[in-house]
Write a structure and sequence with these properties.
alpha/beta; seven-stranded mixed sheet; 45% helix
Amino acid sequence: MMKTIRVLMLALGLLTAAGAFAAGDVRDGKAYVKPVKNDKFSINGYTMGKVELYGYLGQLRDDEHITGVVLRGGGTDAQRQVIASSCKTLEIEAFEEDGGDLKALPLGS
């Protein structure tokens, strides 16, 4: 009985730690995505392409209830378009960091 309780407590602790790590780049209902070279993106310690990013953002929208995505530190026009297109499809807002402020990315057509 005690062994079962210990195992359950350990599992609960691991789930709590994993949840805290996953929420590292999610603040105030927004996911903060960093552009990296070769038109890839980094979020929560993972580097991914546009298709993987779209799936990950969809999961964050459903699980963490994000309402927007912030592209950190600029990025290329292609990276801005990926963020804007993904956000339009997911029906969430798209932003770009502009100094300390957030600037809305146009979602296009």
